[in-house]
Design brief:
Layout lengths: L7 E2 L8 H10 L1 H24 L6 H25 L5 E4 L10 E4 L3 H20 L3 H23 L4 H33 L2 H15 L1 H8 L9 H29 L1 H6 L15
Helix pairs in contact: 2-3, 2-9, 3-4, 3-9, 4-5, 5-6, 6-7, 7-9, 8-9
Length: 278
């Protein structure tokens, strides 16, 4: 079992200050790199997306652009918090956990990223599909519930069982989000004339988002089969695909099919999409 001994501490010698936590992050080259790679890619994405959105004029397309731009903006802020040690803590694992009694580095700030960025992803997808406000509200609120209860699962130190209880509650919220993405919105996108691009982005989102609960279960928060650094790289790679690659594909299509996007109403479209230039 790879636990990353440099990130697991004896509670008899607690590390409590932000400076000490930062030092431990920086001393683990793999963990530190997983954070700074995301900061760099988020910065490049912001510059690219600003340039891509300069010629977008219609209000609906602009709203999709702003929602999409907020994804790397939130990410760079959150990952900066992680890299500085601001949103990283030390948690003593409860009895029953594989690392029971040991203090483990917990990058809980990732949940802030997901709580603020994933609703923007869903907002952009919902606008693209031309869904109604009730479905959009349902998807976003269920997503926020998923992130908040996931944070609770990661932070609970009083009971190993309760960590898994909150994990399952988070997964239940996730199932509701998946239902909207896989059942409700595809019908709306078909009526709106955006089903082709929506189908691709939906598949990318669902496949990558499924990786997050799997990593939670395998990482130090769950069964502790993966080290903190490996888990961090897993989350970072998922974020790169689910945020920056997703956003680039969406904005490229929106910029090339602005008239189609502008014609979308609630569940219907009056135009036909034209393929984006390669």
């Amino acid at each position: 079992m790879a636990n990353g001994s440099s990130l697991i501490f004896d509670p008899a010698f607690p590390l409590q200050t932000q400076t000490e936590v930062l030092r431990m992050i920086q001393e683990n080259a793999s963990l530190n790199a997983s954070l700074w790679v995301n900061i760099a890619l988020a910065g490049l994405s912001i510059l690219l997306f600003v340039a891509m959105g300069r010629r977008i004029e219609s209000s609906r397309a602009q709203l999709i652009w702003v929602a999409t731009l907020l994804v790397p903006l939130v990410s760079i802020s959150s990952y900066a918090g992680l890299a500085s040690g601001l949103t990283v803590g030390l948690l003593e694992m409860p009895a029953g956990h594989a690392l029971a009694g040991q203090e483990v580095l917990s990058p809980w700030g990732r949940y802030l990223t997901w709580t603020f960025s994933t609703p923007m992803i869903l907002l952009a997808l919902g606008l693209l599909a031309g869904t109604d406000r009730a479905k959009l509200f349902t998807a976003i609120t269920m997503d926020i519930g998923m992130c908040v209860t996931g944070l609770a699962a990661a932070l609970i130190t009083s009971s190993y069982l309760l960590r898994w209880v909150f994990y399952l509650i988070s997964c239940a919220f996730f199932v509701a989000v998946l239902y909207v993405l896989l059942v409700e919105w595809p019908r709306d996108a078909a009526a709106a004339g955006t089903s082709e691009i929506f189908g691709m982005l939906k598949l990318l989102t669902v496949v990558l988002w499924l990786g997050y609960p799997i990593l939670w279960a395998l990482g130090s928060e769950g069964f502790a089969l993966l080290s903190v650094a490996i888990t961090s790289w897993g989350y970072s790679l998922l974020d790169i695909g689910a945020k920056y690659i997703f956003a680039f594909l969406l904005l490229r299509w929106v910029a090339a099919n602005e008239r189609v996007v502008d014609s979308v109403t609630t569940g219907r479209a009056t135009g036909t999409a034209t393929p984006a230039d390669d």
